[in-house]
From TrEMBL, chain A:
Species the sequence originates in: Neodiprion lecontei
Pathway(s) where this gene product acts: Protein modification; protein neddylation
Active-site residues (renumbered): 109 (glycyl thioester intermediate)
Family: Belongs to the ubiquitin-conjugating enzyme family.
Catalytic reaction list: [E1 NEDD8-activating enzyme]-S-[NEDD8 protein]-yl-L-cysteine + [E2 NEDD8-conjugating enzyme]-L-cysteine = [E1 NEDD8-activating enzyme]-L-cysteine + [E2 NEDD8-conjugating enzyme]-S-[NEDD8-protein]-yl-L-cysteine
Molecular functions per Gene Ontology: ATP binding; NEDD8 conjugating enzyme activity
Keywords of the record: ATP-binding, Nucleotide-binding, Transferase, Ubl conjugation pathway
UBC core domain boundaries: 27-171
Primary gene name: LOC107220851
Matches recorded under CDD domains: UBCc_UBE2F_UBE2M
Source superkingdom: Eukaryota
EC numbers on record: 2.3.2.34
Protein name in the entry: E2 NEDD8-conjugating enzyme
Any Pfam family the entry gives: UQ_con
From TrEMBL, chain B:
Catalyzed reaction equations: ATP + [NEDD8 protein] + [E1 NEDD8-activating enzyme]-L-cysteine = AMP + diphosphate + [E1 NEDD8-activating enzyme]-S-[NEDD8 protein]-yl-L-cysteine
Keyword Lipid biosynthesis tagged: no
InterPro entries the UniProt entry points to: E2-binding, ThiF/MoeB/HesA, ThiF_NAD_FAD-bd, Ub_act_enz_dom_a_sf, Uba3_N, Ubiquitin-activating_enz, UBQ-activ_enz_E1_Cys_AS
Domain named E2 binding: residues: 344-433
Physiological role: Catalytic subunit of the dimeric E1 enzyme, which activates NEDD8.
Keyword match Nucleotide-binding: yes
Active-site positions on this chain: 209
GO biological process: protein neddylation
Assigned protein family: Belongs to the ubiquitin-activating E1 family. UBA3 subfamily.
This protein's name: NEDD8-activating enzyme E1 catalytic subunit
Recorded GO CC terms: cytoplasm; nucleus; protein-containing complex
GO molecular function: ATP binding; NEDD8 activating enzyme activity
Known pathway: Protein modification; protein neddylation
TrEMBL record, chain C:
CDD domains: APPBP1_RUB
Lineage: Eukaryota, Metazoa, Ecdysozoa, Arthropoda, Hexapoda
Protein name: NEDD8-activating enzyme E1 regulatory subunit
Cross-referenced SUPFAM superfamilies: Activating enzymes of the ubiquitin-like proteins
An annotated Gene Ontology molecular function: NEDD8 activating enzyme activity
Assigned keywords, A-Z: Ubl conjugation pathway
Pathway(s) of this molecule: Protein modification; protein neddylation
Pfam family, one: ThiF
Domain THIF-type NAD/FAD binding fold: 18-532
Highest taxon, organism lineage: Eukaryota
Amino acid sequence: MIKLFSLKQAKKDGESPRTGTQKKASAAQLRITKDINELNLPKTCGTEFPDPDDLLTFKLIICPDEGFYKGGRFVFSFKVGPNYPHEPPKVKCETQVYHPNIDLEGNVCLNILREDWKPVLTINSIVYGLQYLFLEPNPEDPLNKDAAEVLQNNRRVFEQNVVKAMRGGYVGSFYFERCLK
Amino acid sequence: MGSDYAHRKWCHLRKVLERSGPFCRPDFEPSPNTLQFLSENCKLLVIGAGGLGCELLKDLALMGFGQIHLIDMDTIELSNLNRQFLFRQKDIGASKAEIAAKFINTRIPGCHVIPHFCKIQDKDEAFYRQFHIVISGLDSIVARRWINGMLISLLNYEDGELDQSSVIPMIDGGTEGFKGNARVILPGLTACIECTLDLYPPQVTYPLCTIANTPRLPEHCIEYVKVMQWPKENPFDCPIDGDDPQHINWIYEKSNERAVQFSIQGLTYRLVQGVVKNIIPAVASTNAVIAASCSTEVFKLATSCCSSLNNYMVLNDLDGIYTYTYEAEKKEDCLACSQIPREIQISNSTLKLKDLLAILCERVDLQMKNPGITANVNGKNKTLYMQTVASIEEKTRENLNRSLVELGLRNGSEIMVADSTTPNTVVMKLKFSTSTTDIDML
Amino acid sequence: MASPSPKSPEQSERTRKYDRQLRLWGDHGQAALEGAHVCLINATGLGTEILKSLVLPGIGAFTIIDSKKISDDDIGANFFLDSESVGKSRAEIATQVLLELNSDVRGDYVDEGPEQILSNSPDFFNNFTVVITTALPEKSLIRLSKILWDLDIPLIVCRSLGFIAYMRVQTREHTVIETHPDNETPDLRLDNPFETLKNHFDSINLDELDLKDHTHVPYVVILYKYLEKWISENGDVPKNYKEKQQLRDMIRSGIRKDEHNNPIDEENFEEAIKAVNTSVGRYEVPPSVMEVLNDDCCINLTAKSKPFWIIAKAVKDFMENDGSNSLPLKGAVPDMTADTEKYISLQQVYHKQAAADAEAVWRRTVHLLRQIGRPSDAITEKDVKLFCRHASNIYIQRGSCIADEYDPKTVDASEMTQSLENPESMMVYYVVLRGIEKFQVEYNSYPGEFDDHVEPDIVKLKACISKLLMEWGCGPLAKDDYVHEFCRYGGSELHSVSAFLGGLAAQETIKFITNQCKPIHNTFIYDAVTSNSASFFI
C-alpha cells in the first residue's frame, strides 16, 4: 500500500523546485509537436509557420496539379486549441474559392473537421481530406449550393466557372480574387 | 471556546480517528493527532467554487479540514442559485471564490478558506506544490487537463524511479443532470485525466452542410445562426457572449426565422440558450452526492483510515440508484503521465544542437531518424529544430550551430523530442556533467 | 414567407434561477415540486442535508419535527446550525438557516418529539406529500410507517452511521409516466404502417429518384421499402440473425453505383442497414406496459381512481378499439440523413398520427371520467398527451410496509437468508443496523457511544443480532468484523457520508413528487469504505 505523504509533516511553502521553474509542455503541445514532425505532405501541399515557436498556428497551402482546380493556390489557416486532440483544430479557407464544399466565408464542410473528428486523427489526416476535396468536390452535401448545382447539372460549365474564379472575376454576382499560382 | 468545545464538537470524527477497526488500512494509527493534522497542517486546494465546489467546501470543513485554498475565476450568476448554496441574490456579480470562502469562514469557526479569484493557469508550480491534496470540481475538460498536467510536472523521478513524496493526489468530480462520477488520481501511479480522455464525450457537432442546406432539427437552425450568420452579419461587432441577453435574443429571432422557413418545430428560447452556451443541466442533489464522495476520499487519503476508491465511481439515479466502481487503467503510452523524463548526459557545455541531434540519432538505445526538438525556455515554447517541415527547418537551421547554453538550456532542462521511431513525443532531461555546472551558473 | 418576427419571450426571474434543473424535469415537474410539502423528522446533519437539496430547487414548503436542543457535537456534523446556537431548539434554528437558502420556500417547525405527535395528534401527517425521517427510533418508526401506509403517503427512512448509510422507501403504489430511459427505441411501426404512413411510403419510388434525392431519402423509407419486399417474399418480418443479415444485404444491393460500378457513399442506406437490428421486428406492446394495463386498478376504475389509472384505462380501450392493439403512437422521429423537405414531411406524418391517437385517448378519458362520476376537467388534455407520448415506458411500483419487517409474523426473511449466504452481499449492513436499533431500545444508547464501553457493547450488539437472526430463521453472521466496525462508529455521523445519502434521499423525494424517474425498490445501502452501494427489496 502506498503511503503518499507523512501526515505529521506540513508541506513547506516555496520549497525550491529541483528542476528550475520551467513549465512542462502540455499534452496538447506534445501531441501537436509529434503531428507536425510527422507531417507527410503530398507534393501539392506546403505549410507556413509564421512563428516557428508556435506550432499551434500555421497555414496550409494546396496547389492541385490535377482536376478542376489545377493551377490554383489555396491557403487554409489552422488554429489548434488547448483541447487538442480531444477537439479538432479550427480550419478556414482564406482563399476565395468556387467550390461546392467551401462557402464564400471560408467555411469548409469536411466531416473530420466536425462531426467525425476522433482523437486518433492527425493534422496529416486533415491535409489529405482537404486535398481530396479539390480532386473530388462533392455536390451531394454542399455548402455552396449554387456551385453544387452547376457541378451536378453541367460539369463543363462548372469547370469554366472554376477557371473564371481562379483567374479572378465574377461568377454570378460574386467577385473572386485571382488565385492562380 | 476552548479545546474542550472543539473536543465535543468533533466527537463524531474522533470516534473513527481515535479508534481502530477491522476495515482500516494496515498503516492506520488511531490517534488524536490526526484530527489536529487535518485542522492545522493538511493543506487542500479546491478548484472550482461552483455546484461541486460549494458542496466540497462544506463537506471538507465538516470533515475536520481547516486549511483550504479555493480557486475560481467566475462571478456569481442568478442561474447558480438553484444549487450553489453559499451564494445569495445579493452576491450576484461578486467573485465565487471570495463569497464562498467568507461564508465558510463565518459559519465554521476554525476553518480557514483562502480564496483566489483567478484562473488556475495564473498560478505557478510553487503555488501548487504547497498542497497535500487537490480536489477539482470543474466543468471544463481543458482545465482538468491543465491541472492534471501541472500535478504530473511536479513529480520527481530519480533514476527513473518516482519519488512518492512528490505525488499530490487529485480527487476529481463531475456531474451532468442525474449522473456523475468521482475519481481518485495518484499522478504517476494511477490513471490520470489524459489516460482516460475518451471517457469525456465529444461536444455534439453537426455537419456544416446540414446546417447550411438541409436543416432538420431546431438545433441545426441555432447552429446555423451561431456558426455562419453571426460571423457574417456581426450584429454587435463582437464575438457571441452567451451571457448577454441581447445576443441570445438576436440568435433566437434569427434561428426562429430559419425554423419557420424550413417548417421545423420545437425551437424554444430555452433550447437556443442551451445550444449557444452549451449548458449542462444541473441539480443540487447530484452535486451533493458526488462532492460527498470526493470529500470522503480526501478524508481517507489524509487520515489513512481506510483504503481509497480504486479508482473511479459512476453514479446514475434515474432508475433507482446505481453506482459502479472500477479501476480505470493507466495508459502505458499516456501523453501526460507516462512521460518519465529520460536523462541525456551532456559532457561538454559547448555542445552544439547539431551534436545533440547526432547523439539522438546515433545512440544505440535511441537511433532516431529525423528528430524534431522543442523546449520550454523561460516559460515560452521554443522550436529548436525541425527538419521535416521546410518552413520551420529554414527558420531554425541557424540553431544547429549554437551551443545548448546559448539556446537557453541548462542542467536539468527538459527537451521534447518527436521522432518517427517513437509513438509519442519523448521528454528528455539534460544532465550536464559536473565540470560544466559553473558555466551553467553564468 | 411573410411571418412577423417573433418577440423574444422575456424570461422570468424564476425560470432563470431554475434554468439548469428545468432542463431535467420541465416546467410541469417544477410546478409539482412547488406544490409539494415535505415533513422532516429530526434535523440531524443528514436531515438538513436532505432538506437543503429540496429547498434549493424550490420545494413548496417543509416542516421540521424535532424536540432536541442543539449540542456541541451537532455543530460538528450539521452545516445548517451555527456555532452561536448551542442550547437552542434544533428544529427552530435549522428551519431558519435553511430558509435563508431560497426565498421562494416556506418552512415551519414543531419542537416536539415524533413520539408526542404520534400519540397526541396522529392526523398531523395527513397533508404531507412525502415524510422523511433520520435517526428515528424503532418504536416511532413502526407507528409512523403504519399511519403513512394507510394514508398512502410515501415515507423515506434514512440513517447515517459512521461510513455506512441506509435508506428505505415505503410507498403503497407509485406510478411513473416519465421514466427518462437512457435509450429509447423509436416507434416507427414499419411492419404495419398506419394508413397515412403507408400512403406516404407508397408515394416514393426509390428507383425513380435522381441520385441527389436517392442519397437524401430518410432511412425509415428505405427500411420500409425493403422490409415490404422481404415480407412479400417471405410472408413475415425477418426474425433471426440470419434473416436480418439477408435483409441487410438486400438493402446494401440497393445502393447506387458509380461509372466504375463501385457503390456510392450513401449514408442514408448505411443508416437503414444499422437500424435493421432494432426497427424491423413485429410491433409489440412491452410486457411491462401490458402488466400495467391488465392491472386490477386499470380494469376496475372507481370514483377514487388516480388519474394515472383512468388514462391507462383509456389507452387500453383505445388499443382494443381504435388502435389495432397498438399503443398510441409516440410521434417522435430520430434525426437522420435526409434533406429538409423529405425529413419534415415524414416527421409530420408521424406527428399528425400521434396527435390523432392522443385525441382519441383524450375522448375516451373524458368518457371514463363521466362514467365514474368525476368532472371532465379532472384530467387535462395535456396530461393525456404526456401519457401517450410515454405510454411505452410507464411504470408502477408497489412496495411493502416497514412495520411488517419488525413483526415476526409478517417479515419475509427469504431475501435476507439468501443474501447473507453471499459473503459479498451488503445485506449484512441491514442486519447489523437492525441489531443496533434493538440495542438502542434495550440500552438507550448507540453501541460504542461511550469510550469506556466499546468492548462490552460489542458483546451486547452481537447478542441483539443473534436474537434477530434466530427470529428470521437465519444462521449466525459469518464474521464479527461488522459488529466491531459499528461499535467503533459509536453512533457517530460523518458529514460526507450524510451528505452523500442526503443528496440521494432528496432525489428520491423529488421522484415521488414529480412522478418522474423510478425510485429505489425499496432498500438502499451505501458503504463509504469501499464506495459501493446496493439495493434490495425487503
